[in-house]
Each structure stands twice: as C-alpha cells, then as structure tokens.
Specification:
The complex is a heterodimer of chains A (350) and B (276). With 350 residues, chain A is of the alpha/beta class. Chain A contains 7 helices and 12 strands. Helices cover 38% and strands 24% of the residues of chain B. Chain B is globular.
Chain lengths: 350, 276
C-alpha cells in the first residue's frame, strides 16, 4: 500500500515543495497546475500517520461502537469539513482501489468533488460515482440506497462523536457512563421526546446501541439509514477530525436504535410522494425547490418556484431514471436482501 | 429484621496519623487532629437500621452527620477516605468496598439518597417527570406507558401537581423540587431512603407538608429511612430512634422519645434545652 512518489523537479531549498513565483497570481496558479503536488507522500499523509490511523481503526473494529482516540493531523481543509473522514479514507486507500465520495447523497457537491480530487491526485486511485463499483465510499450524512457488500468499506464523517453530549456536556462524565453502560439520561431524553411529540422525534444522529454494549452517535445520517447498519455486510468506519476520535461498526454487528417497547423506532415517512425525476417511492426523499420547466425563468419571485420531492441519492436516482424497476440489490447474485426501510426481506417491493 | 448494620464507619479528609482518632472527638472537643491537621468528619460510628424503621441523626453543623449518611447511602467523595464495615441485607459483603457497577445497581434499586442540595439530586433542565423517570429507566424499565403511569402515581403520592409533570424542574418551587426528589427516591420501591436535611430552605408551612407527605408514604410503603437533620423537630416527628452526633462521634443514641425527654449526655441536654 505504501508507495513513495518522488518528483523529478524536487528542489532541496524548498524542502521538497514546488517553488511558486509570487510576482503575479496567474504565474503562481500556472506553477501549481503543473507541479503542485510534488513532494507529497503517497495518499498525502505520511506513513506513520496512516499506520496510526489504521491501528486506531483496528482497535475500533475490535470494540464496536467504542470511541478510539487518534492524533488527527491538520488537513488541507478546515476541521469539521470532513478531515476525519479523509484521514480514514487516505489511510485505507491503495492504488488498486476505486473511491466514491458523497456529500448528503450527492457526488457533485463541492466538498465531495474536492475530497475525491485530493485522493485522485495523491493516492492515484480510480474514482467513481457508482456505488456498486466503489471499494471505498466516503460519505457525509447518508448511506447509499444500493446494498453495500462485504468487499466494500464505508467511511462516515462525524461532527459530534458522543451521543450523550446532547444530555450532558461533560465528556468526562460521559466516558464514565459509557464505561458502565449507564445510559439512563439518554432514555430520559427519549421519554421527554415522546411526552412532547407523541413519538420519538430525533431527526438525525439517532442514539443507537452497538453490539448491545456501547451507545453510538451514528453521525448525522437520517433515521432512514440507521437500520442499514444492523447486521450489515460491509465495514463502517466513523471518523471525526475535530474531535480526533474513530469508531466502527464491523460487519454483522447488531445495531439497535434506542426505543421504548410501546413507542418503537420509526423512519421518515413520505406519504404519497415519489421522486419527481425517477418516480421511486422506496428511497429517502428530500424536498427541493426549483423553478418549473427546464429553462431558467426571467422573474425569480417566490411564486415561480415549486416544491417537489427528489431522491437524495443522486447516483441511484440516475440509474432509476434509466430503469425504473431496478432493485436496490440488483448487483448481487441473490435478491430480497434486507437493506433499510422500504426494502424488506423478500424483495416484493423492489 | 436488621436491614443495614454499620460498624466503625469513619470518613477522613487528610493524610491521617496514628493519633487522629484519640485526639479528636467529643472528649477532645474538636474534629481536627492537632498533630497532622486531618479532619475526622466522622469516626467510630456503629448503628443499625431495621426494616421499615426510621433512624434520626441530629447534631450541629459540622458534626459529621452528612458524612455518615453519605457513606451509608454509597455516595462517594473522591477526596475522602472512608473505612469501616457496612452490611446490607440485599448484598453480600461490605457496602463500603463495592465497585462502581454494584454501587450503581444498588443506588438505582435498593438504597436512595435525597440530597441536601437540590442540584446534586436533580437535573433541573429535565422535566420534573423526567427526573423521576430517570430512576425507572436506569433500573431497566422500557415501556413508555408503564413509566408514565408510575411517574403520575408518584406525583400523586407525594402531592406534586400532576399538571406540572412535564414542565422543566427549574420552574418548580423549592417545596416541589424537594418532593420531586422524594418521588424520585421512592420510584423503584427501595428498601432504604437516606434523607439529608429534607427541609433545608423551605418555609415552615411547606416543611410541615413535605414531612407529612414523607411520613405517610414511608408508612404506606414500609420503607426504612435514615433522616439527617439539625432540626430536632424534624427528627422528633419522623424518627423511631435517634443518634446524636458531635465532633464526628455518636455521643448518644436511643428511642427518640427517650432522647428528647431524658437526654443523658450533656451536649444533648444543651441541644434540647436550646430548642424548647
């Protein structure tokens, strides 16, 4: 996995970096375009850092749901913008891997495109937007609609690592609670939620028990995606850059959202709505406000916008537009795979 | 039947020296060791509580009654050294030596503490009902309707307006917060409740109602209690037997009526005379 890329234009006076002319912006930019990345190690991070991150990941896999600290290096983007996810991805990637990066279901967002390009330039990996073709998927706020398999890895970006922080801001007290599986305060939070709304109404970061031991913040994925983690075939790594913590859900681990016996966990409901583009009713939909028609209108008053529902997973939506009956497990040699809501075992909805 | 039996319980703040116990206490007239400066908050305390019995502990401020009560209620102060032996009917071994997990289990099911300071016992950002529910949920209740019903029942029992159940506890009056603490302590039908100064900061009429409520519930549920107070009136009203503490030692013990009517120890005599 470790491969050293050395540049022929290596200049000792700049410590291996590329000298950039400073007399004009254009000159600086053209210099960066040609040799901007010379002098960097393979996959941007140095080998010691990658090894340390991998070691933390192994520990996280060994103790499912437990938050393992790691060094969290500075990355070429601000902490809180996916630095944890990038470090995990870059530590895992090898030259033969294919990477997919999504941000809230979309491959085309600026952040996802930039992360993908960083990996492309430094780790020389192939990239894809097709979930089924990726070996490693880095994601923010979503798990793809298509079933992930046992040779795929999912890296989720995590802004807040501890589910208990919602009920007690003290990390020291919360670590103690985790150590003793003392989650009474979180249950009170759920109780008060039901008192207030009649059902548990936590939109994202739904508190989830992993392997019946640790309470985990599954990152800000919608409730819709939480059941996909239960007894999954793939490995999920959750990495936070700002908080310098990594945790994991290994394959075939039980993941159970907290809920009362008589107030069960529910996923988001989209009554009588379908994606306006592909017509899907079994995917996670989001409201989009767009101007009607395909051409951009002249007046952009509020009245000229209409609100429609669309698939959040853009790459699967594109596939469904070509083949409206494509099941979420179309790429597997068996059908009827249980994968989250609206994909019950048996496959009759597919 | 004896529910809880304690012998030679001591709570010490400081390094301690061989002379500490001899140089402090009632005869020495201080609770601080003159040689090493260690504060002996309480020492040489022997007591027992029977099932359904109420034991009162009285004494002036700093006499060690709260330290003793906290040791018995499994409340740990990381700065203190606690020694002695406490046996409890529902547990094999010394209660003072249990690990965190056992302590947590005992505290959520068997032994409840009503703290002197409300902030130690309640999360004021949670609703009053939530604070009571926490005890049930920590003990493993997983049915929302059952929890809800039990909380409502406890609110009625301790005479807190049920209509205020879903308001944040910080909006409650002092008397209501005290009742919520008592309701919370009663939630899982414990065998023993330790009340540390149950009437602090309440005006006299509210004091009377809180004490009345507690006395009624205590008799109905048959729960044993240890009541710590500097107020002889509180102990006289609630306790079957009374211990008098001074300078970290128990100086007198007996049936409450006997201690009140016929105090033997000089300090108890002064204490009672100063009140009546």
């Amino acid at each position: 996995m470790a491969k050293e890329t050395t540049s022929q234009h290596r200049d000792e006076s700049t410590g291996g970096g590329t000298p950039v002319p400073t007399d004009s912006v254009d000159a600086a930019l053209s210099a960066v375009e040609t040799d901007g990345l010379s002098g960097y190690n393979y996959a941007y991070l140095d080998e010691h850092t990658k090894r340390e991150v991998r070691r933390s990941m192994l520990k996280a896999v060994a103790i499912p749901g437990h938050q393992v600290p790691y060094a969290s290096r500075p990355m070429p983007l601000a902490r809180g913008w996916g630095t944890g996810g990038i470090q995990a991805s870059l530590s895992l990637l090898g030259p033969a891997d294919t990477l997919k990066v999504i941000d809230q279901g979309a491959d085309e967002s600026v952040n996802a495109a930039n992360i993908r390009r960083l990996a492309e330039n430094t780790a020389e990996v192939a990239t894809t937007t097709d979930t089924t073709k990726a070996d490693l998927i880095q994601s923010r706020h979503r798990i793809p609609e298509e079933v992930l398999t046992d040779d795929q890895r999912l890296v989720l970006q995590v802004p807040i690592t501890d589910a208990l922080r919602k009920v007690d801001p003290s990390d020291a007290a919360n670590r103690r609670r985790h150590a003793h599986k003392n989650y009474g305060k979180m249950w009170v939070h759920l109780y008060e939620n039901v008192v207030e709304y009649g059902e548990i109404n936590i939109a994202s970061r739904y508190p989830t028990m992993v392997a019946n031991r640790y309470l985990m913040d599954p990152s800000p994925i919608p409730r819709w995606d939480v059941p996909k983690l239960d007894d999954a075939n793939h490995l999920t790594i959750l990495a936070a850059g700002r908080e310098a913590r990594i945790y994991a859900v290994p394959p075939h681990t039980s993941v159970e959202p907290l809920a009362f016996e008589d107030r069960s966990f529910t996923v988001e409901r989209f009554p009588e709505q379908a994606c306006h583009a592909c017509g899907s009713t079994d995917t996670y939909l989001v409201e989009v406000s767009e101007e009607p028609g395909t051409t951009a209108g002249d007046d952009d008053t509020a009245a000229s916008f209409e609100t429609r529902y669309a698939c959040n997973d853009s790459s699967f939506c594109a596939k469904r537009r070509e083949n409206p009956n494509l099941p979420k497990d179309h790429h597997l040699d068996r059908s009827g795979v249980d994968w989250g809501p609206a994909t019950p075992d048996g496959g009759e909805n597919a | 039947m004896t529910l809880l039996e304690a012998s030679a319980v001591e709570t010490i703040y400081g390094p301690g020296c061989p002379d500490c116990l001899d140089a402090t206490g009632d005869r020495a007239g201080t609770n601080q060791c003159p040689r090493c400066g260690t504060v002996v908050a309480c020492a040489e305390a022997d007591l027992d509580v029977a099932e359904g019995e109420v034991l009162g502990i009285v004494g002036e401020s700093g006499s060690g009654k709260s330290s003793l009560a906290e040791a018995l209620a499994l409340e740990r102060d990381p700065e203190a050294t606690v020694n002695g032996e406490v046996s409890y009917a529902g547990h094999d071994g010394n209660l003072l030596e249990v690990d965190y997990q056992t302590r947590h289990d005992l505290r959520s099911r068997d032994i409840s503490l009503v703290h002197q300071h409300i902030r130690d016992g309640l999360d004021l950002e949670f609703t009053g009902g939530g604070n009571v529910a926490e005890k049930l949920l920590s003990a493993g209740w997983r049915s929302y309707e059952d929890v809800r019903m039990r909380v409502r029942e406890l609110f009625e029992e301790t005479e807190i307006p049920v209509a205020r159940m879903d308001d944040p506890a910080r909006t409650y009056s002092g008397g209501m917060q005290r009742r919520v603490q008592i309701a919370r302590a009663l939630a899982t039908d414990p065998d023993l409740i330790v009340l540390d100064e149950p009437t602090t900061g309440l005006d006299v009429s509210v004091q009377a109602r809180v004490l009345d409520t507690f006395r009624r519930v205590q008799r109905e549920e048959g729960v044993a209690a240890i009541v710590v107070s500097h107020d002889l009136g509180v102990v006289r009203l609630l306790a079957d037997r009374t211990l008098v503490m001074r300078h970290g030692r128990i100086v007198e013990s007996g049936l409450t009526d006997r201690v009140m009517e016929d105090p033997h120890h000089e300090y108890t005599q002064t204490l009672i005379n100063s009140v009546i």
